[in-house]
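To start, one record:
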Amino acid sequence: MKRICIVFVGLLLVGWNGVPKNELLEETLYARYYSYLDQKYSDFILCPRIEIERIKGDTRRHIVYASALNYSSHHGDVPFDRIHFTLTDTPEKGVEINKVRIQKGISEKESQKQCRNRN
């Protein structure tokens, strides 16, 4: 299992299909933490954004701020909804979801901002 993860992370770091490595890393980190959310949020996978902050400078303890758009709105005339969630990740307690907020019907400008190129 560790070998598969190492190869996958290696592919992410060098880029895959011309996608910038920062974008791939952000998507991978989002997917890691997204899996801790309740299944009712399963539609929020489009244009993920994530920021990770160390807790008191410790490299093993983090506060994570993440957001993404709902996939079901990407082909329709319905405005996007956006999820924002915050969690902590520590060796002692593992991953704990602190806050989940859904922002309904965001503007086209906000959805474009969420999906902008991350370079």
Summary: The first strand starts at residue 44 and ends at 55. Strands lie at 44-55, 58-70, 82-90, 94-103. The chain has a mean pLDDT of 83.
